[in-house]
């Protein structure tokens, strides 16, 4: 079976009929890209709300500082230090999406 022959419903059936371990790995595969997208949305949301917020700039500088810290070698012990600002900004992005959907449903009523 080649890729053009695979239909979207076949992919859905493949996911449904897969083992629970494969489903967990599939969720983990999409977790970090989703968290990064939400964090970027959180950055734009926080910047539009109050660009003079000191906590916001601290989180941004923390995220910018992280690649410079680990780029010089394989220092995996510093990997945990990036999770806190990333999840805070991802939560801000999630609440932006939530408020967007709530305003859409209020406009439609």
Characterise the protein shown here:
- The chain is an all-alpha fold and 109 residues long.
- The chain has one domain (32-108).
- It is 75% helix and 0% strand.
- It contains 4 helices and no strands.
- The protein has helices spanning 8-16, 20-49, 54-70, 83-108.
- The longest helix has 30 residues, at 20-49.
- It is flat and about 50 Å long.
- The relative contact order is 0.11.
- The model has no long low-confidence stretch (mean pLDDT 81).
| Sequence of secondary-structure elements | HHHH
| Principal-axes shape call | flat
Count of individual domains: 1
Q: Report the sheet-strand fraction.
A: under 5%
Structural features:
flat; mainly alpha; 109 residues
Topology:
Elements: H1 8-16, H2 20-49, H3 54-70, H4 83-108
Helix pairs in contact: 2-4
Could you provide a short overview of the structure?
The chain is an all-alpha fold and 109 residues long. It has 4 helices and no strands.
């Amino acid at each position: 079976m080649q890729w053009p022959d695979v239909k979207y419903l076949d992919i859905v059936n493949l996911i449904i009929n897969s083992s629970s371990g494969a489903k967990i790995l599939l969720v983990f595969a999409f977790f970090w890209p989703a968290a990064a997208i939400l964090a970027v949305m959180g950055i734009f949301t926080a910047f539009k709300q109050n660009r003079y917020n000191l906590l916001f700039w601290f989180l941004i500088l923390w995220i910018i500082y992280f690649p410079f810290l680990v780029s010089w070698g394989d220092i995996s012990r510093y990997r945990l230090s990036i999770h806190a600002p990333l999840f805070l900004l991802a939560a801000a992005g999630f609440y932006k999406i939530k408020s967007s959907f709530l305003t859409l449903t209020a406009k439609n009523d």
